[in-house]
Amino acid sequence: MSAEIICIGTELLLGDIVNGNAQYLAKQLARLGIPHYYQTVVGDNIERIKQAIAIGTSRSQILIFTGGLGPTPDDLTCEAIASFFDTTLEERQEIIEDLQRKYSARGRVMASSNRKQALMPQGAEILYNPTGTAPGIIWQPRSGITILTFPGVTSEMHRMWEETAVPYLQNQGWGKTVIYSRMLKFWGVAESTLAEKVNPYLNLSNPTVATYAGKGEVKLRVSAKAENSELAEALINPVTQKIQNIAGLDYYGADKDTLASVIGVLLYQRGETLAVAESCTGGLVGKMLTDISGSSDYFWGSITAYDNRVKQELLGVTSQDLETLGAVSAVVAEKMSAGVRLRLGTTWGLSVTGIAGPSGESNNKPIGLVYIGLASSQGTISFENHFGASRDRTSIRHLSACTALDILRRELITTKY
Amino acid sequence: MSAEIICIGTELLLGDIVNGNAQYLAKQLARLGIPHYYQTVVGDNIERIKQAIAIGTSRSQILIFTGGLGPTPDDLTCEAIASFFDTTLEERQEIIEDLQRKYSARGRVMASSNRKQALMPQGAEILYNPTGTAPGIIWQPRSGITILTFPGVTSEMHRMWEETAVPYLQNQGWGKTVIYSRMLKFWGVAESTLAEKVNPYLNLSNPTVATYAGKGEVKLRVSAKAENSELAEALINPVTQKIQNIAGLDYYGADKDTLASVIGVLLYQRGETLAVAESCTGGLVGKMLTDISGSSDYFWGSITAYDNRVKQELLGVTSQDLETLGAVSAVVAEKMSAGVRLRLGTTWGLSVTGIAGPSGESNNKPIGLVYIGLASSQGTISFENHFGASRDRTSIRHLSACTALDILRRELITTKY
């Protein structure tokens, strides 16, 4: 038994909107443990919608539609469904009354085009829309096939799903098992390297382990299927623990954790404070740190020294450093971190200076060369990074900021003061 | 002739990510005037991928795949394609060499699992990935069918599409009528207000005008269909000109313009410089300004004074201001802007101080209260904003940063010094 999501709307085919409805329904199906192997997007065209229904009914038992329930002539979902299952549409008086009530509550008169929204396939159960005008249906047009329709408006769809569809599906005996996932997050390791290290776990069947990578980060999703979330967690916990042990410091957190939130917890626990000096990242490190509510407990502030004069006047970099070594150098990174730490009076000073491109490269300093400095009462250290001239400005800046945070994270975990 | 988008990845079926790749490709196909009637999402399962190919080839002539090109065992796109078209995979030496070059440039050694990414169907043309490790293919496995594959990583996919796939498709004679769009961007006006002002233009048929809104910004997409982009532009230009005249200062730019890029052009033309003092935005304003390559010409730097001590020591805010008025006040915003301007020696000083939430509200200062200060040789001014306690931290920070940039933009346009 599996479900298929069919999203209807030419705006999806034109790329005017992203398909957030499919993501929402996919998550919901996973949570209910209802398998789901296909999603289809099709435009406002009756023959193509019917073709999608033909394919869907050949491979799935529950078809979930979004979109195409409005009052305009290009809203064709109900018509296509009725035609495919060879039945007629009938006007439902209770929908007409519901619509008239809603319009009069808003001090308006129902437009005659809204009558279209009361036309439903014979025998279909109405799925009321508490907030909008487009009702949906739940219908078993033939044995083994269940149809659910929802409007494309996200907030209406969510409420109808949660209040009506979920209880219905559970009453039918579906959604008795749950799929529970934990996303493990890693920084400073390549996807292929991590996959080799945890290779035995990639072939498990329950829980399953899958790798993801993007923007310099590697993730492993550990998913278990069980009768309830406690049992699923009991399947997941030993596996995530073993993977974390194998990954060591490359593992930084799970689910909603970010590098910045993990650093926040560590600094807070240690009762320590942080100041940041940025050049090529221009404020991005500070932005990431202050994405976390409560970060004022440990993040005191930052100096973005985009111009070299600011590096000199506020951070203690000397004109000699800039002339002989250049702004993108280990020494300047270290002085920036020490300078901002001293100036703001914090436990730690963290700095980034590099060439984010696409311009700014020089003879022996390529785009993607980034130095990170870290200062504490124990002195300063610096780290040289080569993020590659083939990467774009946004990627290099993102990698630079995350790598700086990751360096501090590793230092906070491994050092005791 | 039509194209079909097939996105591969269990993470899409689990709802872990939203299908932004489908939206991007849909937009691109519309721009090229290539019809596209279906999108399919399928998991990392070879039989189901082959089934999607069977359906796709029965109704579309161009199949565009994203995802499933990585080095791990669940990356099955190439294998499924080769198997469906009854050919074998062969290791391409040139890909191995490219991968080795990329790894050694980053000071790493290629894992043996990466060799999998060099396995391509016999006869397929390689679509090189300039930024990542997963190459794609362009292949005509049989007459009338063209296959394109792209990695799921968005930035890599975009670059490969633009640099390689678009020229290829156009060489093949596809994309002969173009849909050409210009996205007009507005700040500081509600969608409904703008829609009323430009109402007559919303009913045109070529070009069409559609409104979009999100994250405080309003956009109008003006799209024309024509034989080439010059003819399409000739349809678009008079309409966009009239809309810009109606919108006045609320219009800030088009397409890739951002508030920060528009400010950059204005400052550069005036030969002026900018420094920023941030509190609740924590670096976001600086990050936005330095998203623009070349911003070092006019953006000298910023001080993020997250802790009140930093506001006092570096920005000239007094302890009396903080005690009597509080850090979130018009006076502190003005002093921060004047302080950073003085400290960094720039033409303009721009500041933001506010309560981004979810904590931090006080008796008469609600979440969403944000003051913006602007300092120049003419003195300082401040602006009080109420972004609303119902908004979340991310939205309030984004609105704060954009509004600060917009205030400077309006000042730069309307004042002459």
UniProtKB/TrEMBL annotation, chains A, B:
Database matches in InterPro entries: CinA (IPR050101), CinA-like_C (IPR036653), CinA_C (IPR008136), CinA_KH (IPR041424), Competence-induced_CinA (IPR008135), MoaB/Mog-like_dom_sf (IPR036425), MoaB/Mog_dom (IPR001453)
SMART domains registered for this protein in UniProt: MoCF_biosynth
SUPFAM superfamilies noted in UniProt: CinA-like, Molybdenum cofactor biosynthesis proteins
Recorded superkingdom: Bacteria
Domain MoaB/Mog residues, every copy: 4-172
Pfam family for this entry, one: CinA
PANTHER family, sorted: NICOTINAMIDE-NUCLEOTIDE AMIDOHYDROLASE PNCC (PTHR13939), NMN AMIDOHYDROLASE-LIKE PROTEIN YFAY (PTHR13939:SF0)
Record-stated family: Belongs to the CinA family.
HAMAP family tied to this protein: CinA_B
NCBIfam families cross-referenced by the UniProt entry: cinA_nterm, PncC_domain, PRK00549.1
Annotated protein name in UniProt: CinA-like protein
